[in-house]
Each structure stands twice: as structure tokens, then as C-alpha cells.
Inverse folding.
């Protein structure tokens, strides 16, 4: 199965990784972490303990600096090469110490299980295996073809895992482990910087001087590793001790971390709005991954030779980076990092005071003088992190379980959902008032609710809606005094119950008074928040309903006063009609017409590819001709719904084109006269389209009703007006009948279209005398239309 997934070189690489993992883990499992630093005093074989490592075997057996090492593995201490060469006691089986006046002898067994054993052996295996699984998934998804940036990212992930797994062998002063850690650990930030460079290059971004930093990082790591290998395996006159080499590694690591963060910060500053969340996640991920080690381990070790947190814990944070990058490469939706940052800043501010209080109490209670500064800092970090994490967790739990655990909270959400659903069917302000009062009474169980309308000038009032006993005179007077100092959309301060300034218009305002609850308890925060949300939503709908009522009233007054529909309303209605015509024309052209053309082509192709009988061939030709007729009809319908090239050709040429098409199918002749038409007449798109529709309607009426054999159409105009004169020799009509049946004829539509342009129309006709129409509309340059536009704007 593995051979089918991996090629030969990948198989070799996997085997090498497994072999190295087995070697380093066996070293960590077999040998107990002793953790004793010692120094030779004088020329005699006298070795004195100088330091005891935390969480080591020595720290748990009451050994302390100043103790003397008498014997290691039943031999003199100087014969132990780790102690002799590196001043460190590791990988031993027997130890004899002089502790004060006591001589202590220890037998150290192999494979001792402890917390340190777990941290140095089991946990690194889990991290490495998880990294291998994720890398295999990425490799499989890429079908064996990996881009350079992905290869570097996988290498980075493996180096992070290997740094963690080699740490145990390195702590036991295994030479190969020390050498390998000198390669993997400082390479982590360099590889990450290399990945960022390749990924930016693939996306078309150039990072200045970054390639130089990468090459310099690799070169320095290579040189230091080569020199360390020589020092470990050869006896040189000038040797660098392990502690000095560790310091060099920490310096390289810190410098590359600073370079990495500066490059990422520069990318963040120059990124676009769409890329900003990605670079924010990258920057924060790197800070959380590397800050614990650099800030709490590396820098304190270099400056004061102390560690504020354990190196194992700080190193484990680096595992965040490969997980973060692999998630960014595979996820479709990013975390809303801006929202998370805002919450983090808020929670971090809240957590400072309780953290200081708890850490201060610990300092007072413990009263431990041994290295208390470091311990207090560790306690502060742990408490601070726990409180912030708890606040994040509390917010998530609130969102999921608050409605179940807190009495009434789910009821508030259900009430808002119910109100939003019912409000869509409300058409009158009075119905909304009744719905609000009913909803508040259902949820809050109050004694009474009163909706007042207060005149702010005269201080008079009237009760518009009420539940229970309306507010008494004393309460109303108190409400009036509070309203004089209040504002719309706020609660007014009164002694009994609640009063909310619901809405206001002109000289009046709507005030909602809510009496106390039946159980005499105060309104809690959740109830007030629900009430404010409900009333804010209701206010918006209420004001819109009032505007609609005012609009309808003004419209009815305008129609009753002028005895005709307002011009602006006619324009609006005809504009909506034209938009629907345009949409229908587009749908017909893009769907029905294209389908007809496609089937016609299939039928022609079928006829040409097969030998048909004479009768079948005639049937196919008849069907093809029928399809062509349908195609022409659809095209003609599309042209009628949406006149082609009206804006490009102008009104005269568009009408001329219309007449040429009508002549092909009409049984009457048409004469067009444009001698008195000035080409510089200015018409907007709405005017031109309306005139075109008027001519269409006149021609349609002539063919359907007038039974005319000849039509004269004259287009004329000047700077001020555009005129249409229509005349036919049809049967004519009685104009009295025309006026009484406008709503049933196309001529009514013509009259309304002319009215929408602020024009005039005159009908002339007698039975048997034909039919004549004179239409005049103002042009854009006329003073009349300019005055109309000014009135409309105002």
C-alpha cells in the first residue's frame, strides 16, 4: 500500500525518518535524565556539582549544588567521558555522591517512567506521527506532484517534530542528538521564512532581501553544525563547549525569528484588504508559536542565565505553525480573525486585575524565598492564560447553552422570532400598536400597558392602545415631564414602571408606558435588552407605516383635487412597465429564441445526413419553415418589447424602421412626413421611448379598430416642443363614446403616456370621417420641462 502511495525516493526518506525516530526515542526511553552539571576543582579527581536541572532525576533525589561526585558506574568520575568532556552527568547506571556528611549511593535503572520520560519520549512520538500523517495527506491530495513551497512547508513541519523528538536525546548528551538538534532547531525559522518567500513569489509578490536572509541562515547553520561535529568527534586544541554551542544556536534562532516576524509584518502592512486576514493569522500564529521560547527561554538564558518557563513547554508551542499553515492551505473559509482579536483584547483587559490579585495572594500565602520571582512570573502567565481561555469558553457556552440554562432567555429569542414573522403581515399602524402591546404583555406579564400620543406643544394627550388599566393622571403628568427632557428611542426616567419614547412625528410623539410586573420584581438586564430590541425594531416598521399612510393620503388628495393621476406617478408606472418589458424581451431572446434556433439546426442537420422519402422530406421542410416563422415571430416580439437601437438611431429613424416593418404585414398604406422635424431636438431616453410606444399604439389601433386603408403620420418639432400628427381614413368614432370607455381601449394608454410627459393630446373624429390625433410634448430644452424637473426635485 505504501509503495503504491510513495515513489522510491519518498520510501527511502520515510525509512530514514523512522530509523532516526527509533534511535532518538530509544535513547530518551533507555537512559534516565540525570541533569547534573559539575566542575573539576583543582588537579585532583574532585568533581563538585554546580547546577541541578529542573524536572531531572537529580532534582527528585535531594541532590544540590556543592555535592561531590565520588563514583560513576563504579569508576572514578574522570573516566566518564561525558563528565570529562562536557561537564555533565548523563547516561549512567550507578552514582555515588557526598551530600554534606552523608555518602549516598544510587542505582539508576533503565526505562524509568516519569513525567520527564513522557515529555521526552511519548509526546514527541505523537507529534512526529501526526506530522507524518498530515504530510501524507497533503502528498496524496497533490497526486505526488508537490510545488516547492509545499515541499518546504512539509520539511519545516518535520523539522519542528524532529526538534521536539531530538530534545530528549540531546538533553542526555548523546553526541548524534546534539549534532542533529544543532541542525533542526535553528533551521525551523529559516525554513518558515523560505516557505513564505516561495509562496509570495508564486502569488506574484516580491520580498526584497528575503532571499539573502534565507541563504545567510542556511550558510551559518551549515558552518556551525560542521564545526560542532568536528568538536564532538575530534580532539581540537580550541574547542567550543556544549553550553557555548547552545548559546550560538539560541542567538541564530532568535535572529532568524526577528527576521521572520519583520518580513511577515512588512507583508501585512503592504497587503490588500482581501489578503489582510491571511497575513494577520500568519503574524499572530508566529507570535504565539515563537514568543514563548524566544521571550521566556532564549533571551532570559542569554541575558540572566534563567528560564521563565520550561524549554519543553515553550518548544511545544512551535507546533502551532505547521498546523496553522496546513489549515490555511486547505481550508475554504478563514477564521474571522478581526472579531477574535477584538474579543482577545477585551478579555485580556478583563483578566489583568483578577490575575494580579490571585498571583499576589499566592505570593503572600506561599512565602517561598527560593527563586520566587521566576515562580511568580510563571504563576502569573498560567493564571492569565487560564482566565482568558475561560472567558472565551464562557462566551461559546453562552451562545450554545444559555437559552437552556437561564430561565426566560430562550423565551426572549422566540419572542423576537415570532414578532419578526408576524410583523411582515402588518399593514396599518394601529395593527402594529396592538401587536406590540400583546407581545410585551405575553412575555413580561405586566399589570398594564398604555400607548400614549403626546402633543409636545400643547402637552395634550390621547390613549391610542392599552392593556389592563390605563395610566392614571399622576403617572401621565410624570411622563410628560420626563418627555420634555428625553429623546426618541430612549427610556424615560419615571418612578413607576417603564416609559419608552417610541416614535415622534412633527409636533407629536408616541410613548409606551409599561406598568410593574405582577410579582413586583424589577426588570432585569435580559428583559430590558429584549424590550429595547423589540421596540427599536417596532419603531422602524411603525415609522415606515406612517410614511406609507401619509403618502397614500397625499396621493388621494392629489387625484381628488386635479381629477387625474399625478404626472410623477404615471412616469413611475410606465417606467416599471418598461423594465418588465425589457426583462421579458431578454428572457425570450436568451431562452425561447435560442432553443428554437438550436432545434431548427438539429432538424436541418438530420435532413442533410439521412436519405428521406419525398413525403418525409416535404414534412421536414414544412416543419423547418414553421420553426423559421416562430423564430421570426419571437424576434419581432422581442423588438416590440424592447425597441432596437432607439438610443443610437434617434426617434425619427426608429419610427421609420417601425413603419417599414408594419407595412410588410398591414393592409393599409403609411406615409411619413418629417420635413418640419429639426434634428437638434433634445429628448431624453424616457421621452423617446414613450413617443415610440405612442406611435406603436396608434398603428395597432388603426389595424384593429379603425379599418383604415391609409395613414398619414407627421413628425415635427422645434427647440421647445415635439409634435405628432396622426390621421387615417378609417370609420371614425363618436368622441363621447371614446371618453366613456377609455379604460377599455388602447387610446386611454396613449392619453396617459402623453400626460406622463406633461404634454397635450387632442382627438378629432366623427363617424365615417376618419380619426385624427394631435400630440405635443415639451423637449428637454423647453422652460416648461425645466420647471417640471425642478418641482419633481423639490
Amino acid at each position: 500500500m505504501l509503495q503504491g502511495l510513495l515513489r522510491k525516493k519518498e520510501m527511502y526518506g520515510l525509512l530514514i525518518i523512522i530509523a532516526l525516530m527509533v534511535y532518538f526515542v530509544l535513547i530518551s526511553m533507555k537512559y534516565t535524565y540525570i541533569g547534573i552539571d559539575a566542575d573539576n576543582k583543582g588537579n585532583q579527581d574532585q568533581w563538585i556539582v554546580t547546577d541541578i536541572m529542573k524536572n531531572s532525576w537529580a532534582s527528585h533525589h535531594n541532590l544540590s549544588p556543592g555535592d561531590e561526585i565520588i563514583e560513576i558506574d563504579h569508576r572514578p568520575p574522570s573516566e566518564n567521558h561525558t563528565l570529562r568532556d562536557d561537564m555533565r552527568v548523563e547516561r549512567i547506571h550507578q552514582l555515588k555522591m557526598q551530600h554534606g556528611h552523608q555518602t549516598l549511593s544510587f542505582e539508576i535503572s533503565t526505562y524509568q517512567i516519569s513525567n520527564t520520560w513522557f515529555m521526552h519520549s511519548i509526546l514527541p512520538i505523537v507529534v512526529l506521527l501526526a506530522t507524518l500523517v498530515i504530510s501524507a495527506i497533503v502528498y496524496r491530495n497533490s497526486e505526488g506532484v508537490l510545488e516547492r513551497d509545499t515541499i518546504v512547508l512539509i520539511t519545516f513541519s518535520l523539522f519542528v517534530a524532529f526538534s521536539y523528538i531530538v530534545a530528549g536525546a540531546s538533553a542526555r548528551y548523546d553526541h548524534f542528538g546534539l549534532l542533529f538538534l544543532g541542525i533542526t532547531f535553528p533551521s525551523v525559522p529559516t525554513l518558515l521564512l523560505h516557505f513564505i518567500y516561495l509562496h509570495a513569489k508564486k502569488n506574484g509578490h516580491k520580498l526584497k532581501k528575503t532571499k539573502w536572509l534565507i541563504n545567510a541562515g542556511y550558510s551559518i547553520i551549515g558552518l556551525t553544525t560542521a564545526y560542532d561535529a568536528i568538536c564532538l568527534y575530534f580532539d581540537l586544541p580550541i574547542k567550543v563547549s556544549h553550553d557555548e554551542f547552545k548559546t550560538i544556536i539560541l542567538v541564530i534562532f532568535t535572529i532568524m525569528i526577528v527576521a521572520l516576524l519583520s518580513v511577515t509584518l512588512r507583508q501585512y502592512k503592504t497587503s490588500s484588504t482581501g489578503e489582510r486576514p491571511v497575513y494577520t493569522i500568519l503574524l499572530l500564529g508566529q507570535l504565539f508559536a515563537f514568543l514563548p521560547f524566544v521571550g521566556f527561554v532564549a533571551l532570559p538564558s542569554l541575558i540572566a542565565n534563567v528560564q521563565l518557563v520550561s524549554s519543553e513547554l515553550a518548544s511545544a508551542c512551535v507546533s502551532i505553525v505547521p498546523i496553522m499553515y496546513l489549515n490555511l492551505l486547505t481550508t475554504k473559509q478563514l477564521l474571522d480573525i478581526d472579531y477574535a482579536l477584538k474579543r482577545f483584547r477585551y478579555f485580556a483587559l478583563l483578566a489583568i486585575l483578577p490575575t494580579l490579585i490571585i498571583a499576589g495572594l499566592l505570593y503572600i500565602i506561599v512565602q517561598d524565598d527560593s527563586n520566587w520571582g521566576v515562580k511568580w512570573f510563571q504563576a502569573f502567565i498560567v493564571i492569565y492564560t487560564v482566565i482568558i481561555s475561560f472567558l472565551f469558553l464562557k462566551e461559546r457556552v453562552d451562545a450554545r447553552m444559555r437559552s437552556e440554562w437561564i430561565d426566560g432567555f430562550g423565551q426572549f429569542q422566540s419572542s423576537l422570532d415570532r414578532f419578526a414573522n408576524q410583523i411582515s403581515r402588518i399593514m396599518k399602524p394601529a395593527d402594529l400598536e396592538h401587536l406590540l402591546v400583546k407581545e410585551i404583555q405575553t412575555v413580561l406579564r405586566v399589570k398594564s400597558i398604555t400607548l400614549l400620543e403626546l402633543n409636545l406643544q400643547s402637552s395634550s394627550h390621547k390613549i391610542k392602545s392599552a392593556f389592563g388599566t390605563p395610566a392614571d393622571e399622576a403617572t401621565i403628568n410624570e411622563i410628560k415631564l420626563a418627555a420634555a427632557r428625553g429623546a426618541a428611542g430612549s427610556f424615560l426616567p419615571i418612578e413607576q414602571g417603564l416609559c419608552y419614547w417610541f416614535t415622534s412625528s412633527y409636533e407629536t410623539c408616541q410613548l409606551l408606558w409599561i406598568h410593574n410586573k405582577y410579582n413586583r420584581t424589577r426588570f432585569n438586564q435580559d428583559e430590558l435588552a429584549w424590550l429595547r430590541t423589540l421596540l427599536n425594531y417596532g419603531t422602524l416598521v411603525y415609522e415606515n407605516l406612517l410614511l406609507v399612510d401619509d403618502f397614500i393620503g397625499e396621493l388621494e388628495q392629489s387625484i381628488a383635487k386635479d381629477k387625474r393621476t399625478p404626472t410623477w406617478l404615471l412616469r413611475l408606472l410606465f417606467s416599471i412597465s418598461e423594465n418588465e418589458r425589457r426583462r421579458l424581451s431578454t428572457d425570450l431572446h436568451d431562452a425561447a429564441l435560442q432553443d428554437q434556433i438550436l432545434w431548427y439546426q438539429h432538424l436541418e442537420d438530420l435532413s442533410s445526413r439521412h436519405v428521406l422519402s419525398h413525403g418525409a422530406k416535404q414534412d421536414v421542410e414544412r416543419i423547418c419553415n414553421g420553426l423559421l416563422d416562430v423564430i421570426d415571430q419571437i424576434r419581432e416580439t422581442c423588438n416590440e418589447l424592447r425597441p432596437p437601437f432607439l438610443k443610437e438611431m434617434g426617434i425619427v429613424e426608429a419610427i421609420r424602421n417601425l413603419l417599414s416593418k408594419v407595412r410588410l404585414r398591414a393592409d393599409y398604406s403609411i406615409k411619413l412626413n418629417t420635413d418640419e422635424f429639426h434634428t437638434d431636438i433634445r429628448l431624453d431616453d424616457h421621452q423617446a421611448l414613450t413617443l415610440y410606444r405612442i406611435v406603436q399604439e396608434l398603428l395597432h389601433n388603426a389595424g384593429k379598430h379603425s379599418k383604415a386603408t391609409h395613414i398619414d403620420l407627421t413628425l415635427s418639432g422645434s427647440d421647445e416642443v415635439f409634435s405628432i400628427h396622426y390621421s387615417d381614413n378609417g370609420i371614425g368614432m363618436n368622441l363621447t363614446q371614446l371618453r366613456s370607455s377609455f379604460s377599455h381601449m388602447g387610446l386611454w394608454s396613449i392619453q396617459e403616456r402623453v400626460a406622463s410627459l406633461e404634454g397635450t393630446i387632442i382627438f378629432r373624429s366623427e363617424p365615417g370621417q376618419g380619426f385624427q390625433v394631435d400630440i405635443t410634448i415639451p423637449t428637454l430644452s423647453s422652460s416648461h420641462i425645466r420647471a417640471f424637473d425642478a418641482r419633481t426635485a423639490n
In short: Residues 567-609 form the longest helix (43 residues). The radius of gyration is 45 Å. The domain at 646-794 is CATH 3.30.565.10 (Heat Shock Protein 90).
